[in-house]
Amino acid sequence: MTSASAFKRLLATTLFGVALAGCGSASRPTPPAVSPVNQAGGFVSIPVPPPLPRTARPAPASLVNAISELQSGFQGKAGIAVRAVDDGWTVEAGGRQLLPQQSVSKLWVALTVMDLRDQGKIRLDEPIVVRPQDLTLFHQPIAMLVKGDGYRTTVGDLLTRALTHSDNTANDRLLTRVGGSAAVRSMIARKQLGAIRFGPGERLLQSGTAGLVWQPSYAVNGGFLTARNQLSPAVRAAALDAYVRNPPDGAAPIAIADAIARLAKGDLLSETSTKILLDTMGRSVTGRARLRAALPGGWEIAHKTGTGQDLGRRNAGFNDVGLLTAPDGRRYAIAVMIGDTIRPMPERQKLIQNAAAAVANYAGTTRPLN
Questions:
Q1: What CATH code is carried by the domain that includes residue 261?
Q2: Whole-structure pTM over 0.70, yes or no?
Q3: HEC per residue, the chain
Q4: Which of 16, 21, 201, 265 measures 20 to 30 Å from 235, CA to CA?
Q5: Which tens digits make up the pLDDT trace of 280-318?
């Protein structure tokens, strides 16, 4: 055999081996055990491609129709989004508009706390003091414990109070501890949570929504309500209009549902932090007439509610978002948000309940998880 013929056979064998290496399953190529050396003699980093995404099943037509009818039939600005955690499909109606979150935004403060825990920068048993100057407004049960030089507790206790009782002071004290609104916004951007805004904290947000500028005296003895009641209806209406038109705490329901789905899958936090956060959300005592009220026996829920201010018959923000787990183990992230309406509270509650019922009805017709 000539040297030229030997070379051709060697080349053909090599190319055949390369071709075989490129056939077969759709899995990503395995990265080399040792990075190759560059011309300067140092090791170069070869990024490992992410795994191929699981193909999502198509959204169920029955649920698409049900959610669309609920959203379009409600008199007011509303959005609904459902994301199947395990099957990957998404159903939404009005779910891409920015709607006021109100206390739903406490979820992002909690997520920031747990993210810092994963980084070793905060501990849930870390001592923390809530002082009189930390008091906010509206719902703040912890205020009864803040006396003298303050109430001494832990980060974990404040997290529980903020998520389970929607305590505004507990939430804002945590917000201060994690580095303020900028730190939460940074977490939202870093985790790529999408169309989710984070406002300036409860005091400034609620004052601005009412047409006031925050004063420390508003935090005690009903000071905020007294000052708000002294405003003219025109001033309050103008402030409320500005808020619902461009809410500084606005978020798209579809972005919230996706974030909750990613949380459930373990994409946002460590396994331990994920479990702690979802378990805490599962102990919430707020919103008994919202998502929870429509779930059949055997279902589990981990959720966060949000309720905005009223002006006459108008309400600016009435929400419930969370993770619904069916008896067969399938999980559904859901966000139902009402941004501006004159419909009475029972009708707002009914919209949220009906959205949860639609998911439960769909899940009752699906096969169990494999």
A1: 3.40.710.10
A2: yes
A3: CCHHHHHHHHHHHHHHHHHHHCCCCCCCCCCCCCCCECCCCCECCCCCCCCCCCCCCCCCHHHHHHHHHHHHCCCCEEEEEEEECCCCCEEEECCCCCEECHHHHHHHHHHHHHHHHHCCCCCCCCEEEECHHHCCCCCCHHHHHCCCCCEEEEHHHHHHHHHHCCCHHHHHHHHHHHCCHHHHHHHHHHCCCCCECCCCCHHHHHHHHHCCCCCHHHHCCCHHHHHHHCCCHHHHHHHHHHHHHCCCCEECHHHHHHHHHHHHHCCCCCHHHHHHHHHHHHCCCCCCCCHHHHCCCCCEEEEEEEECCEECCEECCEEEEEEEECCCCCEEEEEEEEEEECCCHHHHHHHHHHHHHHHHHHHCCCCCCC
A4: 201
A5: 999 999 999 999 999 999 999 999 999 999 999 999 999
